[in-house]
Specification:
The protein has 195 residues and is α+β, with helices and mostly antiparallel strands. It has one domain: Gcn5-related N-acetyltransferase (GNAT) (Aminopeptidase, 3-Layer(aba) Sandwich), CATH 3.40.630. Helix content is 26%, strand content 25%. It has helices at residues 13-22, 46-58, 91-97, 120-134, 162-167; strands spanning 3-7, 63-69, 72-80, 104-111, 138-142, 171-176, 180-187. A seven-stranded mixed β-sheet has the order 1-2-3-4-5-7-6, with helices on both faces. The termini are far apart.
Amino acid sequence: MNLTTGPLAIDTWDAFAELGERHNGVWGGCWCLWFHTRTPEMGQSPERNQEVKKQMVADDLTHASLVFDGDAAVGWCQYGTPEELPRIYHRKQYEKELHQPADYRITCFFVGRGYRRQGVSAVALQGALDLIAQAGGGLVEAFPQDTKGEKVSSSFLYNGTRNLFERAGFEYQGAKGKNHCVMTKRVDPAATGVS
């Protein structure tokens, strides 16, 4: 496969929406909204979630690295600031054990049928890190599943796996909940070519 990445934006919305629509709005119509601040508009229906997501894209309030096979989106990695993505599982434990506040947070992945277990998540993650570097870089945190080498259903791997993040240079910071962990990586700003 010759996969490429690009940001979720109004000009890539149609490709993102087609992937979401092919998969019933993803995880029961979530449209990758769960980690955002809840609003009354969210959760009314998968169709309403899609409308909310599109408006958030138009307002630059949600970010993701999309993975493309040609013109078709085949997966994504959602990222953003902790203010943009404040909802996380096991928040009390996380806040009690937090050592250094992060500048960015990676919250979820999605890979379309026919592309799973082929490295699309790794491509999406690298695309997100590249976009973070272009935005100035900083400390990036993630909360992947710590599978401890055991086979886990892909439906539980929406946060990615510890192994995926280790391969991308993230460092383990500690456990979070029963099966997840906190991992971080410092991303340098992208070179602008200006001297």
